[in-house]
Specification:
The chain is α+β, with helices and mostly antiparallel strands. Helix content is 43%, strand content 11%. A hairpin with a 5-residue loop joins β2 (67-75) and β3. The relative contact order is 0.09.
Length: 192
């Protein structure tokens, strides 16, 4: 039985398909010289399609280090909308962070005060924001909305007197008005 070994992930940017094919062949040759080979399912040439590169290609996206790189709508500093090839939080990374939130059982942590909850959650959420919102901030919005959803469920369990929807909504809106920076993600979100 032979032991199959694969090199770690890497991205190489080229200016043309011909150059990409030459570089890929060179990398494969060098890997073979040191007893490694490229992963056959992960190795591919991806076309970075955007407003300036409008050709067609079999692969126009890839995932790397928790980011999904693909064509996305962007806006210039002059307000002009165009297509750019940008990274944003990948669906797999989003699912992993949502799973992590579920494991944290935030709504059940009624033993914590609101300030304790903020001290506990803010470093975790700030880390996610700093990593995943760096290039395409709106890609992390579903995760931040999930955090707020768990906070609302926590508050509903913690403060039984807020049972009615109107009473709870008034309290929540008041909280956002009094302490708009209590939770780190509130600074980025429009709809809490």
């Amino acid at each position: 039985m032979t032991n199959k070994r694969f090199a770690d992930d890497a991205i190489v940017h080229c200016t043309s398909r011909a150059q990409a094919e030459r570089v890929l062949a060179g990398i494969a040759k060098r890997m073979a010289e040191v007893g490694l080979r490229l992963h056959p399912d992960k190795t591919r040439i991806v076309y970075c399609k955007d407003s300036n590169r409008r050709g067609d290609h079999e692969h126009t996206s890839f995932t790397f280090l928790g980011y999904a790189f693909r064509p996305r709508e962007a806006r210039s500093r002059h307000g002009v909308t165009f297509t750019s090839f940008l990274p944003a939080m990948s669906p797999e990374a989003l699912q992993a962070k949502c799973d992590r939130l579920r494991e944290m059982r935030i709504p059940k942590r009624t033993d914590l005060t609101l300030d304790d909850l903020a001290r506990w959650l803010n470093p975790i959420v700030a880390g996610w924001i700093n990593y995943y919102a760096r290039y395409y901030r709106v890609g992390v919005d579903p995760l931040l909305q999930r955090v707020s959803s768990y906070l609302r469920r926590w508050a509903a369990k913690k403060y039984k007197r807020l049972r009615g929807a109107k009473r709870f909504d008034r309290w929540w809106t008041g909280l956002l008005g009094r302490q708009p920076t209590l939770f780190v993600h509130w600074r980025l979100m429009r709809n809490y």
